[in-house]
Amino acid sequence: MPKVKIPTPLRQYTGGDKEVEVGGATAGEALGNLATEHPDLKQHLYTGDGKLRSFVNVYKGDEDIRYLDGPDTEVGDGDELSIIPSIAGGRC
Amino acid sequence: MQTRQPLVDSPNGEVQLSNDEIARYSRHLIMPEVALDGQKQLKAAKVLTVGTGGLGSPLALYLAAAGVGTLGIVDFDVVDESNLQRQILHGTSDVGRPKVESARDRINDINPNVNVVVHEEALTSENALEIFADYDVIVDGTDNFPTRYLVNDACVLLGKPNVYGSIFRFEGQASVFYAEEGPCYRCLYPEPPPPGLVPSCAEGGVLGILPGAIGTIQATETVKLILGIGEPLIGRLLLYDALGMSFREMKLRKDPNCPICGENPTVTELIDYQEFCGIPQAAAAEQQNGVPEITVQDLKSKLDNGEEINVLDVREPHEYEVANIGVKLIPLGELPQRLAELDQSENFAIHCKTGGRSAKAVKLLQDAGFQNVYNVKGGITAWSEEIDPSIPKY
After folding, report:
1. What are the sequence ranges of the domains in chain A?
2. Does B143 contact A9 at a Cβ distance shorter than 8 Å?
3. pLDDT per residue over B44-73, tens digit each?
4. Contacts of residue B77 in chain A, CB cutoff 8 Å?
5. What is the dihedral angle through the alpha carbons of A33, A34, A38, A40, rounded to the nearest 10 degrees?
6. In the CATH hierarchy, which top-level class contains the domain A3-85?
7. Which of B115, B349, B384, B393 pairs with B177 at a CA distance of 20 to 30 A?
């Protein structure tokens, strides 16, 4: 099963877990399963009509899935998916 | 020693170092990667730091110490007590002063050879191009999405590198967005998140040392770009996790469809970034779907007059421990499961730290059928400021 790395701003929706193992043969399936297991995550990952939000970047290893096969990017055992959110802090 | 074209040409005879400067920069001068020529490049360099807060502090301190000749600083804020946990440019005696003033004094104390150029104003679409035009490198130490897109776009339009850093709680990101050679911020994040979805540092907190790590990386990248040494973070996003104490690196690609640095750009001038980030739209929606509010003064007089009103605190227990006004606590996250503890027929005034979470709680109770629920405007912060100063403000 692939692992999904959860960034700090979203960990409150995974019960504090920084890494979650989920089923799925593609990146899209894995994220869908992640959102099903952690329903509060859903609105942060998907738009109302079920599309992955454009400010949420998903990487397989160190590659953006936008430049692989998008949500159809194949994932397998030991693959690492990372959610990279926009964060704006700095001057604060 | 150079691995790439330096941003600042070797100034040869135009810039000289005094004997005092030679003594000061000794540890640079004995390194072949910097040496006398490199130190002169640093002296000739003009760097703009946007923001003199968490990231801007270590940045400005190190760039000044390293001998960057001209350091521009943009900020419109004044130093607040709550800044001192991480904004090491400013000291306790600076509280209440404009940040640019305390920054200038501190920079000049570290290195009087630095020419500090103060821009005491908010960066806007009207002034950004003019301010940026004089500088070789722009370093982004801002704290909000509209300004980040503004900094990016102005840098792309002017062909200047944008040394990026961003922080949240225990996590940081750094990169160099330089459209001349690689991707820009919009290639990574084409659209901003809707307002309110991503918490700010003021809401989510930040480890005080975290900006030190990220700001120092930004300062390092700035110096490398000026000197043309090493491998810059162009096309790479560095992710830092302070809790796991780990660094990871992601590949960034230039998006051929990027609206500003792609093949057919649609953004050819600076736009309204508040609008782009949905700020006015969100404010209007909030006003329309606004929840009934009560001021702390009104709440106080109702309580003093013995009116039947229950005050409910929806912050987290660790915040309650810092400051509370002795009322019932149900954290917002637990509220849906604990509605049975509240009597629908009674009146409620709900507060949090400043009013954001309590507005959500009011909405939640209204949706559950409660009739008389009010949001305490300004939260416990307003209570501390206007009613009872013995309650600590955090």
Report:
1. 3-85
2. no
3. 999 999 999 999 999 999 999 999 999 999
4. 91
5. -100
6. alpha beta
7. B115
